[in-house]
Amino acid sequence: MIGKTESYILEQIEKNGAVHVTLIDPEKTGPDEASLLAKECEACGSSAILIGGSTITSSSNLDSTVKAIKKNIKIPVVLFPNNLTGISKHADAILFMSLLNSSDPYFIVGVQVLAAPLIMKYGIEAIPLGYLIVGEGGTAAVIGKASSIPYDKPELSVAHSLAAKYLGMRFIYLEGGSGVSNPVPTDMVRMVKTVVGGPLIVGGGIRTGNQARDIVAAGADVIVTSTILEKTSKGSIREKMTEIMEGIKEGVKNKKIR
User: Fold this and answer.
1) Between 151 and 136, whose confidence is greater?
2) Which pLDDT band holds residue 237 (cuts at 50, 70, 90)?
3) Which domains does the chain show, CATH number per domain?
4) Residue 166 burial (10 A CB sphere; 0-12, 13-18, 19+)
5) What are φ and ψ of residue 50, in 5° steps?
6) What are the pLDDT digits (tens) for 27-38?
7) Which end of the chain has fewer CB atoms surrounding its CB within 10 Å, N or C?
8) What is the mean pLDDT of residues 41-58?
9) Closest by alpha carbon to 125, among 157, 94, 90?
10) CB neighbour burial string for 236-250, b if at least 16 within 10 angstroms, e if fewer
């Protein structure tokens, strides 16, 4: 059953052609700073705030960050967990994801079994998602013990994404990794979207409006940025966000032309 937050995201995609989501890592950004960043990104057009990171160790810090952000914005706050420590009862929803190309069954289904009763207890909306780490993969690949899919092997991403679809996962997330040199190639995005269809999220290494434009034009429905905003000075966040959002809008136009 599709819940309120997932319905909202799908409606935003349908309305705008593609959307932006801001990822905030509570290990790198304190509650107050995270709250201000979320408010700024909401004002610039972000459709939701993802909360998570590869090395979350403090559940209390996560709770504080989620609560601080929710006080300051109206858009949904969605958990992007790396483990059980990435769950907060204060969030609107959680990406209930399986790291399909992990070599460790724990990240494919083990931690999900442990997390499911907590998610039900807290009443958090679960959004089923197939998560794939590609290219460099960054810290996420190391922590998740992922056999990262090479950028020049898009057919492997297609095969994994099809498996996710047939298993009933409603979203696909192609993850290039936080802070990596290059984003997910447009050829890989295009092939996954063409063959698999369904809502496609792309994140990792997206630093410019042109990169966002090209990835959206190739078929991405959701663009996720994080590191670029963490490294942007407070006074320049609105400028960088505007650049990314304009790139997404241009990508939607190019997608329609195609």
Assistant:
1) 151
2) confident
3) 4-257 (3.20.20.390)
4) exposed
5) -90, 140
6) 888 899 999 999
7) N
8) 87
9) 94
10) ebeebbebbbebbbb
